[in-house]
Amino acid sequence: MITLRTQLELQQGLEYLVRDTTNRRWSDPEFYRSLNQALQEWAGRVRFPMLYTITNGWSSTAYEYTLPDYIEHNIQPQQKRFVNEWQVYPSADDTWVDMHNWHIEPNSSGGRSMRIDYLPYAGAGRILYWAENGPVPTTIPTLSAGIDSDDTSLTLASKPTIGRVGYVKIDSEWMSYQGYTEAASTLTLTNLTRGLLGTTAASHTSSTSVYWGVAADDTGLYQQLSDNTLHFLMRFWLFNSSSRETGVYEKQMLFYQDLANRYWRRYAPKRGPRMVLTLQGTGAWW
Q: b or e along 7-25 (b: 16 or more beta carbons within 10 Å of the residue's beta carbon)?
């Protein structure tokens, strides 16, 4: 189970903590740049599960499937089948089961493909994969046009630097996106999944703010993120030659850095190791 916090919630929490709600010492972009530096240190440590649906499902005549460029980490392909203790075959009582005997390899277009060693049954298919938090926009983007409750894409009126996969909150609705397309001055988020975390898919009008979410599998991670962001905020003042409080900020920087680093010594990601079994490994030669 993941939890989400918007970039605005994280920023406001930091502002109250350092008593800078009027941006006297740090601007909003500085808060977000520091937050992004702290998020970079989550790379390889903090991931969240996402779901990619195979268009038209698995084919009984295709061995190779091109993966979208936003699927970068551990994956687990699945097929929908009825399973009992003796066999696996198509049925009206289908359920999702893991596929085995597959591997990832580079393709001629510079991307990655998943190659299946043994042809699957034809039918519905999906891939579970782990994603990482990308940077949050340093300036809050807005919708370039309104969207309806069933739209699966949205267009921003600007081109912020963001991750290929992530979560956004518009008004009171949480939604996820997978991939984006760029135009001259806009960015379109694609493959939206609407109404997440108990919220309701709704219509949203043009120029509405779009807030990025930060996902975590442990709420304690937000305290680590807060401490590390404060560490980077204090570093801003080390290069301010006009400040007479450089020594104070240096001590605070080291204090928050120690708190942030201390968290990793007790953090254990809530995901199991990835295993791919082969026919030899299962002994299923009969």
A: bbebbeebbeeeeeeeeeb
Classify residue 242 by its DSSP letter: T
Return the C-alpha torsion angle 155, 32, 46, 49, nearest 10. -20
CA distances from 280 to 35, 61, 272, 283 (A): 47, 23, 22, 5
Residue 75, token pair as written in the block? 């994956």
pTM of the model as a whole: 0.86
Give the three-class secondary structure for 264: helix
Torsion region of 198: left, alpha or beta (phi above 0 gives left; psi -120 to 50 gives alpha): left
- pLDDT, tens digit, 9 for 90 and up, residues 66-87: 999 999 878 999 998 766 555 5
> How many CB atoms lie under 10 A from the CB of residue 91?
12
Percentage of the chain beyond pLDDT 70 is 86
Return the domain boundaries, the chain: 1-47+217-268, 48-131, 141-209
Give Cβ neighbours of residue 137 (< 8 Å, ≥ 6 apart).
7, 32, 158, 160, 161, 162, 212
Dihedral Cα 30, 35, 36, 41, nearest 10 deg? 140
Contact between 75 and 114 under an 8 Å Cβ cutoff? The reply is: yes
